[in-house]
Amino acid sequence: MPIPSIDSYAVPEPREANRVDWQLDPARCAVLVHDMQRYFLAAYDRSADPAASAVTNMTRIVEDARTHGVPVIYSAQPGDQHPHRRGLLREFWGTGMTEGEDTEIIPELAPREGDMVLTKWRYSAFQRTDLRQILSHLQRDQLVILGVYGHMGCQVTATEAFMHDIQAFLVSDAIADFSREEHQDAVDYVAKRCGAVLSTGDVLAAWDASAASSAGVANTAQEAARV
């Protein structure tokens, strides 16, 4: 059962101010690229928003994450799921995708060597996966969330991150949804209830500022050592 086509819409601006003043730190965070598989993106006109802006912004964030040493983690659902594995998802969304091209991450965001790919079974990327253990092993307690669909997997993953005491940052212009209203609702819910909402520009600026600060500290230490 394919996902019905999704009408194009302008990416909404967040309406709610963040309730928390969390500072994004490249030494503490990982990036989650949520469900960016061909099957899910096929519902969009890729030349129009929200998909056009979202994919462009996700690509910028992922490339910058690699530059700053921020781990990049992908979630991807498997194809040809057995009905017992599929569970209640089957009642809402049918049998899902088939193994093969459907399951591939879109080329613009294809994982590279060193990235991690999680097999995902439910809306939340934490459910029935090792995401919590991976973040603990990497000593990361912040999660930057990009992908589809905003009011489903992205919002639910941010909520569950909160339950694990992981700071979730939902990137409002690097997600796409079924509609502008649902996109808006997801962004507002996260800002009010379980995380922080940032723009792509906010994420890149935070990482650059942190890198500049670290470089300044290192230069100061080197100068002090020469004295």
TrEMBL record:
The keyword Hydrolase applies. Pfam families: Isochorismatase. Keywords: Hydrolase. This is Isochorismatase-like domain-containing protein. Residues 29-200 form the Isochorismatase-like domain. It comes from the Bacteria. It comes from Kocuria varians. The keyword Hydrolase applies. SUPFAM superfamilies: Isochorismatase-like hydrolases. InterPro entries: Isochorismatase, Isochorismatase-like_dom, Isochorismatase-like_hydrls, Isochorismatase-like_sf. PANTHER family: ENTEROBACTIN SYNTHASE COMPONENT B, PEROXYUREIDOACRYLATE/UREIDOACRYLATE AMIDOHYDROLASE-RELATED. One of its GO terms (molecular function) is isochorismatase activity.
